[in-house]
Design a protein that fits this description.
The protein is α/β, with parallel strands linked by helices and about 270 residues long. The chain contains eleven helices and 14 strands. About 40% of the residues lie in helices and about 25% in strands. The strands form three sheets. It has an eight-stranded mixed sheet with strand order 3-6-2-1-9-13-14-12, sandwiched between helices. The protein binds adenosine-5'-triphosphate and magnesium ion. Adenosine-5'-triphosphate binds next to α1, β10 and α10.
Length: about 270
């Protein structure tokens, strides 16, 4: 397919303040755009960029779930509009850094079934890449066969596209250094996991999924690191190397895109 394709997901935790409703971090968005542009300038590659919804999506969807409003067309429109606003801001900075980006919307491409991807049209993504564009998707809402509407998380979209297009690498930039044995923000006992391979996979799946139940906080609706880990495992089982790193730290996005060895968790289930 594409020999040098990278899929990069930048977390909503990096580009927004998840504690404040619709609070973007333009300086972080600008820094990350500069880092992507620098990596591109040094050595061009194919890139699909996906960003999270952060505080432009999670709180609204949380409210919808609590009030059983997942089937409300008006609420659906409100969330789609809200996450588009964050997307526009990101696109503005990418373009200002001369990156040929174009947005693709989940509502056009994705059909969900009970919150998981039932189908995703990858042709438009491929065709944009073939023409030298950077397709940009984001954590969004999409149509669900069973539930009318549901969340298409950025992590979910990233895994699906990376696996389907046989990306060389799937990179997740988030607000912690990588995968830990428990949430590093909750205690000092969390141990950093630098490598996930065939040998330690089952043990780590046990440790991280046990903690999944406890980690969800009130305004996060897409499972945080434990669910991200499951998507990474899914991609890695299909031959995509995955890396999760701290994109809040300057130069990490650049270095990850350049393929440098960084402090991160590497998931490789091929060797
Ligand atoms: N075992 C774990 N290892 C690392 N982080 C964990 C773990 N369990 C829970 N977390 C939490 O997961 C958070 C990262 O997931 P989160 O969904 O908040 O970010 P994101 O995916 O980058 O943002 P968004 O969902 O808006 O795109 C970390 O801030 C951390 O507190
Ligand atoms: Mg998340």
């Amino acid at each position: 397919m594409f020999k040098d394709l990278k899929v990069l997901k930048i977390g909503g935790s990096v580009i927004t303040d998840k504690k404040q409703w619709k609070k973007a971090k333009p300086r972080e968005i600008q820094r990350i755009s500069v880092e992507i542009a620098s990596a591109f300038k040094e050595k061009p590659f194919k890139l699909v960029l996906i960003h999270g919804a952060g505080s432009y999506g999670h709180p609204l969807v949380d409210e919808m779930r609590k009030e059983k409003l997942l089937s409300s067309p008006l609420k659906f429109s409100e969330v789609v509009f809200s996450v588009s606003e964050l997307n526009h801001l990101f696109l503005k900075h990418l373009l200002a850094n001369k990156l040929p980006c174009v947005q693709l919307k989940a509502v056009d491409l994705v059909k969900l079934r009970n919150g998981e991807i039932a189908s995703l049209q990858v042709e438009p993504v491929k065709e944009c890449l073939e023409r030298g564009l950077i397709p940009v998707l984001h954590g969004d809402m999409a149509l669900d066969e069973k539930l009318t509407f549901n969340v298409a998380s950025g992590d979910m979209l990233a895994e699906f596209i990376a696996a389907r297009l046989k990306a060389e690498e799937l990179l997740f930039g988030t607000d912690v250094d990588g995968l830990y044995t428990s949430d590093p923000k909750l205690g000092l006992e969390a141990q950093f996991i630098s490598e996930v391979n065939k040998g330690n996979l089952n043990e780590l799946l046990g440790i991280v999924s046990k903690e999944e139940f406890y980690t969800s906080n009130s305004t996060d609706v897409t499972g945080r690191m434990p669910k991200k880990f499951r998507y990474m495992v899914k991609a890695a089982k299909q031959g995509v190397k995955c890396v999760v790193f701290n994109a809040c730290k300057p130069s990490m996005v650049y270095r990850a895109l350049r393929g440098e060895k960084i402090r991160a968790s590497y998931i490789n289930l091929t060797s």
